[in-house]
Design goal:
By secondary structure, this protein is of the alpha/beta class. Helices cover 17% and strands 26% of the residues.
Length: 258
Amino acid sequence: MTNIHPTAIIDPTAEIDDDVVIGPYTIVRGNTSIGAGTEIASHVVIDEHTSIGPDCRIFQYASVGAAPQDLKFKGEVTHLKVGRGTVIREFVTINRGTGVGGGITEVGAENFLMAYCHVAHDCKTGRRVILANNSTLAGHCELGDFSNIGGFTAIHQFVRVGDYAYIGGKSVVVKDIPPYVISAGDRATLHGLNKVGMRRSDFSEATITELKRTYRLLFRIGLTLNEGIERVRAEVNQIPEVVAFVDFIQNSSRGITR
C-alpha cells in the first residue's frame, strides 16, 4: 500500500496489486480490481464493478467505469473490463455496460485512448485500438484489432469497425466500416485500402494485392454487394484476410459504408 497516496480514497473491497501506483485524490470504489504495474494519476475515479488489467496508465481526471448514460439503465450490476497495457489519457470517460446490452463494456489490450475520448456502454474494442482526441463511441459499438479512429470522430450506436480500418478526423460514421479500409467524411465514405497501416503491420505485398482486388470488385466497378461478393469468391484467392473482409460485410446489420 506504500504506492497509494494518503489522500486517495480506496474502498476496502477493491483488489489492488502491491505494485500499483495511485495518485492523490483518486477514488477507487468497491468491487474493483487493478492489475500489477498499473499507474493511476491524481483525481481519477475508478467506479464500481471495474476491472483494470496489468501495466495500464490512467492519467488525471479520467472517469473509468461510471454508470451508463442510457435511460434503460435501472441500476443493475454491470461491468467494465480494461485490457492489459492500455493508456487512458486526461478526461477520458468510459461507461459500464447495461443489462439489456450484455452487461459489460470491454476495452481491449494495448489500446490508446487520447484525451477527452468517450467509450459508451456495451462497446467492445479489440487489441491495439487508437482513439484520437475527442473521438466518441455511442453505445454498443465494436472496433476491430488495430483500428484507428481520428480525432473529433463520432460513431453511431451499434456500428462495427473492422480490423486495421482507419477513420479520418472529424468524421461522422453511421454505417459499418469494413476491415483494411480508409474512410472519412460526414457521412463517412470509403477512400481505398489502408495500405500504409497494413505495411506497418507487416502484411505481405501478396496479401495487399488480393485485398486490392477484393476492394475493387466490391466497391469500384458498380456492382451490388451481392454481385461483388460472388465475383470475389470466384476470382480472388481466398486467403484469410479476403474471407474476413467478405464475412464482415455479410454479417452487417447496419449496412456497409460505401
